[in-house]
Amino acid sequence: MLNVSDLSKIQGGKTLFSQVNFQIYPGEKVGLVGANGTGKTTLFRLIIGEERPATGQISYPDDMRMTYFSQNVGEMRGKTALEVVLSGDQRIEFLKKSLKEFENKLCDPDISPEEMDSVLIKMGDAQTEFEKRSGYDLETRAEEILTGLGIFPIDHGKRVEEFSGGWKMRIALARVLVVNPDLIIMDEPTNYLDIETILWLETWLKEFKGSIFMTTHDRNFMKK
Ligand SMILES: Nc1ncnc2c1ncn2[C@@H]1O[C@H](COP(=O)(O)OP(=O)(O)O)[C@@H](O)[C@H]1O
Ligand SMILES: [Mg+2]
After folding, report:
1. Does residue 146 fall inside a structural domain?
2. Per the domain annotation, does 23 fall within a domain?
3. Model's pTM, two decimal places?
């Protein structure tokens, strides 16, 4: 599913790794172990395309859904907790917006019959994909995941900046999990999490049917 071949990376004049080869198969859970500064984060950044390798290739199917969870919570200000999680699935967001636009066009009294036909066809395709991606229960899934992470429905409408650091981290995690990815890349996911969240995440990842490529200093977590 993910295929890495002949991968080398030089950083600041230092060769971090050279001619690395490995595969990750569907459903496989792989742990990456190595001392600080050996290039684990760099390898993840190469896979998600944020860095370029010196040599080698990284390939995966076009339709593979890959998400990356890092210590970096990113920019989420101004949105509610639920909105942030919903925005995690960018394709569903896009389809939702398109469907709205198509609806508006169909309400236009000046629309020509040809245009109407064309809009109806595109709308049908968007509708089919939206259903295939479980767009209708995205919100239910988002709420379930937030609640599972200890953020209860009463707080789903609260703005992200009103949450403390640890809680923001859980919201970032929920945004990754809602995509239902084929492959989750996790860089030290347990670093800012308390024990309760770690246990919840452990269970979630154990039941997760997709692949995981992860690094963590928490050996216990990795083994489970
Ligand atoms: N953007 C960068 N420019 C120069 N050096 C970097 C950059 N990013 C990381 N490094 C260096 O590359 C090495 C590997 O870093 P990193 O991939 O973060 O390791 P790890 O995640 O295993 O701790 C470190 O020596 C780090 O200082
Ligand atoms: Mg790192």
Report:
1. no
2. yes
3. 0.76
Beta carbons within 8 Å of 188's beta carbon, 6+ residues apart: 70, 71, 215, 216, 217
What gap in Å lies between CA 122 and CA 120, rounded to an integer? 6
Residue 93 banded pLDDT, cuts 50, 70, 90: confident
Distance 82 CA to ligand 1 centre (A): 33
More confident residue, 197 or 52: 52
Q: What is the pLDDT of residues 203-214, one digit of tens each?
A: 888 888 999 999
Within a domain: residue 57?
yes
- Protein residues near ligand 2, an ion, with CB under 5 A: 40-41
- 145 lies in a domain? no
Same domain for 12 and 60, yes or no, is yes
DSSP 88: T
Domain of residue 31, CATH code: 3.40.50.300
How far is residue 101 from each of residues 91, 92, 118, 123, 166, measured CA to CA in Å? 15, 14, 13, 9, 38
CA of 195 to the centre of ligand 1 (A): 28
Q: How far apart are CA 49 and CA 53, in angstroms?
A: 9
Question: Which residues form the domain of 105?
Answer: 90-132
Q: Using an 8 Å Cβ cutoff, are 23 and 60 in contact?
A: no
How many domains, the chain? Answer: 2
Least confident of 64-73, 92-101, 176-185, 215-224: 64-73
